[in-house]
Amino acid sequence: MTMLGYQNKVLRVDLTKKGATTEPLRMDWAEKYIGSKGLAIKYLYEELKPGIDPLSPDNKLLLMTGPMTGTPIPCSGKLSISAKSPATGTINDCSIGGHSALQIKYAGYDAIIFDGALKEPGYLLIEDGNVQFKDASELWGKGSHEAEATLAEKYGHDYSILSIGPAGENLVTMACINSDYYRQAGRGGIGAVMGSKKLKAIVIKGTGGVKIPNIVENTKKITEILREDTLQEDNTFIYDYGTTAFLEACSDGGILPSKNFSDATDENWTKYNGDVLLEKRVGKRGCGSCGLGCGNFLKFENATVEGPEYESIAVAGPNAGIDDPEAIVKFNQIADDMGLDTISAGDTINFAMEMTEKGVHDFGIRFGDKVKYLEYLVLMAKREGVGADLALGVKKLTEKYGGEDYALHVKGLEYPQYEPRGSWGMSLAYAVSDRGACHMRAYAPNEEVFAASIPPYTAEGKGEMVYNLGVFNAVKFSLCICDFWATLSYERMAELMTLITGREWTEQEMKEVGARVLNIARAFNQREGFDRKDDTIPKRLVNEALQSGAAAGQKIPQEAFEDMLDQYYAVLGWDKNGMIPDDMICKL
Amino acid sequence: MKITIQLRGSLTKYFQGEKVRSVEVPDDCTAEEALKTVGIDWTAIRNFGFVAVNSRRVMIYDRLKEGDELKAYPKISGG
Ligand code: SF4
Question: Is residue A332 domain-shared with residue A367, that is, in the same domain?
């Protein structure tokens, strides 16, 4: 059955041979996985050989849009960038804002798949159907911001640019991909995959459009949805505050981590809270097609950034023992420019601070040292001096120097900044997330902390809760819709799909897509050898009770965690070892 | 007993844009009952989030004491 909204075209780029071809999108897969996250994982599941080295030319880098990309559907401007992760060895799909997804679609493609690797640094210029390989020797070694500015100057500011910084070039497995200067596909070393292909940037401009059915009538309906649903106050807090709004709520909720997750409060949080940061606001920005526009430009005397997001504030603030808002903003700016994921880079330095303070290994940095904090980022991106060690990330550092008792990661991906002892379901969400510890797969605090009558400190019902959150996000991200449309429902997603594709979608089908996406991601990881033994909880959360804050006295007993895992596997129909039965895999 | 009630984000509309009020509530009342005294029925507010007492998240049916600062948040989502 034909579905509108799609371009029905994939651009395949063979970097080794410097050739580009097009082919039809697998619409039979699109029926089952829709687009973005889900469809990208399906492609990688089918096309990647098990056991490949993620930093070899055998890995593929996949840019995937969805049927809503480039349409007026609110909050639909996100691009999925995925590959096998060099940080974890799992599947890794990232979501990046900005405008690149729209340009890809307007250039006539649903997806771009990069295969092989260039011999010398290069970048790709895509202008509709015209694809050119360009030399990037002048850009190699430059920060992501300078690279983007140089290319924007050369081609014009109406081109979208995806680029890597020195961290990606140096194959640091916490390297990100940047776009619009301050938007990132951040996690799992996706930037290192691009670096391994010697691809400094992708520059793209499209001049076409997207076909949807009954354009006049449907656009009117979409505008009504924007006005009546997206732009209601449940969602618009994100315009006013961005994710800085989470800081106070997380502090009161007992889930704001401090000093490498040794506790969950920081008495100094008011020094860098949202109100303080937003006093420095000089501008606003949003992704393409967004009605909410969460981006805040802040300008301090020595630092400018779009953000910082909650994650970056928390990791470089309380979790690092730093309370200077300008240092936090500068951290964000340098990490973006160097092409480093703020979460993993920050967590790794925080871990090193604790290692130093405990006398386990001297990394030359202690909690609160904001000067070295910023210097170390650059060293990590360049793998120089102490940065060569820190670039390994928390898991590999524990293998080298110890400190496992306070190493916060799952499958080698460092912990985001929501402390699970104050939100037990989050320990499960991190453990079973398809790419290691990620907060975007199932956001448990929303259900059990930022809720008036649900107990956060129990295992009961948490398997089903994390499953439900996971299915919902899996389908939302497969539709390429942003997280901040908080009032979005299955019913609404089905309605939007119907408006865009011209084929009737139901709520039930949406739920089925979500469950299928969870399963295909798990199937990918299972094929790579992952099972229950890898769905872990860090020792600190089991052995050490929080000392202060709303969740003071809380730790998560190992049996409670195992109980949550059992519940989760059971809802999905997986076996006790977390394996998907063969008959389920056949249907994916 | 006297307590203060602080509303965050979009909930401030229930205080006509004010953030904090000092209010008299029945002794030993719950957070839920305290909010009712200022006309806020949390069960009827779709985007009601959670409550904290003296900057510590509590359950809506937890009891308050003299001088407590009760804070009510709207729903927060995303990450
Ligand atoms: S709410 Fe923010 S992140 Fe989401 S689409 Fe809009 S600008 Fe982008």
Answer: yes
The CA angle B70-B76-B79, to the nearest 5 degrees, is 135
Of the candidates A11, A17, A15, A10, the one whose C-alpha atom is nearest the C-alpha of residue A122 is A15
Give chain A's domain count. 2
pTM of the predicted protein model: 0.97
Neighbours of A382 (CB within 10 A): 18
In this structure, are residues A249 and B76 in contact, taking their beta carbons and an 8 Å threshold?
A: yes
In this structure, is residue A5 part of a structural domain? no
pLDDT at position A304:
85
ipTM, two decimals, is 0.97
- Count of other CB atoms within 10 angstroms of residue A509: 18
Instruction: Tell me the mean pLDDT in the region A563-576.
Output: 98
**Do A52 and A114 sit in the same domain of this protein?**
yes
Is B40 inside any structural domain?
A: yes
Q: What is the domain extent for residue A135?
A: 10-205
Q: In this structure, what CATH number is given to the domain that contains residue B29?
A: 3.10.20.30
**Same-domain pairing of A152 and A275:** no
**Cβ distance of B9 and A452 shorter than 8 Å:** no
Q: How many domains does chain B have?
A: 1
* Residues shown for chain A: 588
**Distance between CA A89 and CA A447 in Å, rounded?**
30
Q: Is A377 helix (H, G, I), strand (E, B) or coil?
A: helix
Beta-bridge mates of residue B69:
B4
Per-residue pLDDT, averaged over A350-359, amounts to 98
The residues facing A361 across adjacent strands are none
| CB proximity A550 to B under 8 Å | yes
pLDDT at A1: 59
Confirm or reject contact between A310 and chain B (CB < 8 A).
yes
Interface test with chain A among B12, B19, B50, by most A beta carbons within 10 Å: B50
Task: Tell me the pLDDT tens digit for each residue of A217-245.
Answer: 999 999 999 999 999 888 888 888 888 88
- Tell which of A255, A256, A450 to mutate to test the B interface (max B CBs under 10 Å): A450
* Rounded Cα gap, residues A484 and A48, in angstroms: 32
Predicted local distance difference test score (pLDDT) of residue A265: 87
* Residue for token pair 């949550």: A564
CB A320 within 8 A of CB A346: yes
Other C-beta atoms closer than 10 Å to the C-beta of A570 total: 14
Position A267 scores a pLDDT of 87
pLDDT in tens, A162-199: 999 999 999 999 999 999 999 999 999 999 999 999 99
Range of B45's domain?
2-74
Tell me the average pLDDT across A18-37. 98
Q: Report if residue A494 sits inside a domain.
A: yes
Q: Hey, are the CB atoms on B79 and A483 less than 8 Å from each other?
A: yes
Q: Do B52 and A237 touch (CB under 8 A)?
A: no
Distance from CA of B1 to the nearest CA of A (A): 23
Over residues A365-397, the pLDDT tens digits come to 999 999 999 999 999 999 999 999 999 999 999
Query: How far apart are alpha carbons A146 and A159 in whole angstroms?
Result: 15
Q: β-strand A111-115 against A10-14: which pairing, if any?
A: parallel
Q: For residue A141, how far is its CA from the centre of ligand 1 (angstroms)?
A: 30
